[in-house]
Amino acid sequence: MKYVVILTDGMADYPIEQLNNKTPLQYANIPTIDFLAEHGEIGKVKTVPDDMPPGSDTANLSVMGYDPHKYYTGRSPLEAVSMGVELSETDITFRCNLVTLSDEENFSEKTMIDYSSDEISSEEAKEIIESVNKYLQTDFIKFYPGIFYRHLMLWDNGPYPFTLTPPHDITGKGIGDYLPKGDQSNIILEMMQKSYEILKDHPVNKKRIARGLNPANSIWIWGEGKKPILSNFFDKYQLNGSVISAVDLIKGIGLAAGLKSIDVEGTTGNIDTNFIGKAEAAIKELKSGQDFVYVHIEAPDECGHRYEIENKVKAIEIIDQQIVKVIKTALDEMDEEYKIMILPDHPTPLSLRTHTNEPVPFLVYDSNNLQENPLQAYDEFSAEKTGIFVAEGYKLMDYFLKA
Q: Which CATH number is 61's domain given?
């Protein structure tokens, strides 16, 4: 038996007036996914506990079978694992976004223009983070370049916890009410303020402005955490597995769980990512002997954050044709029993431009146990009508792999 999880980050949504009062998932043309729904099982699952923030970190831990109450130690340490940064028990890690802030003279009066600096390239970002590290590192604090706008700050023996706000939650808002709070938060705020002075006239940013792109004119610190310790996925399920993702967070969860992380050329975490490349990589892993593959697609989430209605629908349709269809066709040709599970980790409603913690729709297709539900489609409301509900998200993986 082969097992594939296709995690469509942030795909769940609310009805949108511009989409005839349908959700992007309802509006999208997804014949392959709907075929799986007609011959499979759909329901809803609560991936994020009510007492935890609805982040991709807690949600993906749940989907992968790990109770976030037990295993969650923060977002950034999982990203550090993916980046190969060795952590000690005393290290506190932070996500360091490269963002675009408005140009008011008083830092607290600035507005969050863009949490990703127009999807700055990894090459440009590396130059900027190197400049940040040159001027802001201390004996205890260092910065590490990551992918695109997502980077890492490490504070040896730093204080914990803080009250820090994800920048994608405040797009278009004044930052004054969302500045760091907590013990020694003044140090983080001072670094953010200094970074603006360092970066506003940085050569990379001058070139970006000349090309009509948003400059990465400040760092934004958030997502603090401690060294993660996950139980081994193989020990839990007796399955050898791989994870395929463009983002360090998902790679880090996989690596911390003992899964193999596969890099795919041309993956960006956005609508222009190499969708087919991810599908082909998943097929290669299954054919090479892996029992389980976790394919993560970030694009719907990014479209939700950026209020890109058409692109969110387009991303869902591409996932149907270039991920789900390609993987299903290959599995059928392998002539081996298989199961596919499709779900988002959390909703990212276009109207809110941030994550929420409502239950999300899931789909399980078992090639060895075909159902006949000719009118069943895969979307938020069809899933709710079935009455199937998994209240503790981390138990869904047990059901998927052992049922």
A: 3.40.720.10
